[in-house]
Amino acid sequence: MNPPFKPKYTSFDYLGFTFKPKIVRNQSGRIYLGFTPVISKKAPKVITHKLIKLELHRMVHLQLPQLAHVVTDKLQGWLHYFGKFHMSAMRYIMRVLNLRLTKWVRNKYKRFRRKHRCFAYIWLREASMKYPAMFEHWKISFTS
Q1: CA 138 to CA 125: how far, in whole Å?
Q2: Which of 7, 11, 29, 144 is positioned for an S-S bond with 20, CB 3.0–4.6 A?
Q3: Is residue 10 part of a domain?
Q4: What's the pLDDT at 5?
Q5: Nearest-10 Cα torsion for 77, 82, 88, 90
Q6: Torsion angle (degrees, nearest 10) of CA 126, 67, 135, 100
């Protein structure tokens, strides 16, 4: 027997997460409708604004490992908090950070200034291959 009304499930935001109705399977194999958390649409914008506000591209007096040290604490916190349930949703933030680092490479090294930014990006990708543990998001993978 169907209920006299059809329940409407909506999503809601709480503590930087959006909870959406989704079909979930528990450990015993039972399927049910659950509200699973995903990073909200506002949180990446806030994190991006904070990355821009750090002005990494102006820290040309630092070497890459020192720059990694500046960002490590914040990045670790974001990855552990928002990546707990859905690490793939953090791809946008990793991409923004890589673009900020690309801008730093172009400002730091003269040979990249007049070239297209893809050359600086390729240099950064090679650095991530050589030293994958330097930045927290490089430990996961280098996302384009």
Answers
A1: 9
A2: 11
A3: no
A4: 59
A5: -60
A6: -70
| Residues 130, 136: Cα–Cα separation, whole Å | 14
End-to-end CA distance of the chain: 51
39: left (phi over 0), alpha (psi -120 to 50) or beta: beta
Asked if the structure places residue 111 within a domain, the reply is yes
> What does the pLDDT average to over 40-46?
93
Burial, 66: exposed, middle or buried (Cβ in 10 Å; 0-12, 13-18, 19+)? exposed
Could you list the residue range(s) of the whole structural domain that residue 110 is in? 40-140
For the full predicted model, state whether its pTM sits above 0.85: no
3 state SS of 94? helix
Q: Is 55 inside any structural domain?
A: yes
Per-residue model confidence as pLDDT tens digits over 55-68: 999 999 999 999 99
Token pair belonging to 55: 């002005």
